[in-house]
Write a structure and sequence with these properties.
Blueprint lengths: L23 H8 L21 H30 L10 H9 L3 H21 L20 H4 L7 H14 L7 H14 L11 E4 L14 E7 L3 E6 L2 E6 L3 E3 L4 H17 L6 H10 L9 H15 L2
Helix pairs in contact: 2-4, 4-6, 6-7, 8-10
Protein name: Site-specific DNA-cytosine methylase
Length: about 325
């Protein structure tokens, strides 16, 4: 007897959640969607509240505090140096700066000089505006770092103002970099270039003229050791300095007198050091300011005595 044909059961999918399988309406919606590349995404804008007048004032005040920080440091260092407030713990300002602040005397001098330039710009370029009310546009922009004003430290106050205003202009009305300021300084120096007629071995007098790097050196004499385009390297009683031409005045000594002063300069420099007693330093400084090409008999004896005293140590 033949078996009746068997019926195979159809396999049906297991019941599933509506969230995993699309229904007919979902398929219809998908088929009608546009190309995802051309879909429009709607972003809800978040409203940022405007600053109040008090907040604007607070912001300007805090910005000025940040800008002035490095220059306030320079003013503080200048007062520490001038009043010798380091003398209870250190013999020299250089040792004090290294131990207390971790930087060299040269770095301190840069900060002090920068503070003087900053003060000049704020009291002259912007003399009609209060510091707290300055805004960042045109001539009201002020330096924010020592490096921006370092190229201007050897210029006269009026030249500093001119350089800064031109540098701001070249920077598109923004705070200029140190490189821009340096380029403007070079342009002005080229414009006012005068021939450097000084000669190596010539004796000159230092004219400080508000140059902070020459503070305490006004009236001192020195020996030209190198002639540059816009300055000379000069050996004084306590070290070697680079001095702009506007800060030098020749004594017009004869060659023999210049050689004699060279010998005296070498002798004074041989005795001098930062660790000397203040009375000895003062004496050497006085010898470094004599406005004649020789020492008197008493001055000669005093220098001989110092040479003998410190040669034995």
């Amino acid at each position: 007897m033949n078996k009746p044909p068997s019926r195979r059961k159809k396999t049906t999918p297991a019941a599933s959640d509506d969230s995993t399988l699309p229904n007919d309406q979902d398929l219809e919606d998908i088929s009608q969607e546009k190309n995802p590349a051309t879909a429009t995404i709607t972003v809800t804008a978040v409203e940022v509240p405007e600053l109040t007048e008090q907040e604007i004032s607070d912001r300007l005040h805090l910005e000025r505090r940040v800008e002035r920080a490095v220059f306030e440091a320079g003013k503080a260092l200048a007062e520490l140096r001038e009043r010798r407030l380091y003398r209870s713990t250190h013999k020299t300002f250089e040792d004090y700066c290294r131990d207390r602040f971790g930087h060299s005397r040269q770095k301190s001098n840069y900060l002090i000089a920068a503070a003087d330039v900053y003060e000049n710009l704020t009291t002259n370029c912007c003399q009609n505006l209060g510091i707290e009310n300055l805004t960042t546009n045109s001539s009201q922009i002020l330096p924010t770092s020592e490096g921006q004003v370092r190229p201007m430290t050897k210029l006269e106050p009026q030249e500093q103002q001119e350089v800064w205003l031109r540098a701001v202009e070249f920077a598109g009305g923004k705070i200029p970099s140190g490189r821009i300021v340096k380029d403007v300084v070079q342009q002005i120096m080229e414009r006012t270039k005068v021939p450097n007629t000084y000669q190596i071995g010539e004796v000159c007098q230092i004219l400080a003229k508000d140059n902070p790097e020459l503070r305490g050196k006004s009236g001192c004499w020195g020996i030209i050791s190198q002639v540059n385009d816009f300055s000379c390297t000069v050996k004084l009683w306590d070290g070697v300095y680079t001095v702009g031409l506007q800060h030098l005045k020749s004594y017009d000594y004869l060659p023999a007198e210049c050689q004699q002063m060279q010998v005296i300069c070498d002798r004074i420099s041989g005795v001098y050091s930062d660790s000397l007693e203040e009375t000895v330093k003062s004496l050497l400084q006085l010898l470094g300011k004599v406005n004649r090409p020789y020492l008197t008999a008493v001055e000669e004896k005093l220098l001989n005595l110092l040479e003998l005293e410190y040669e034995r140590r």
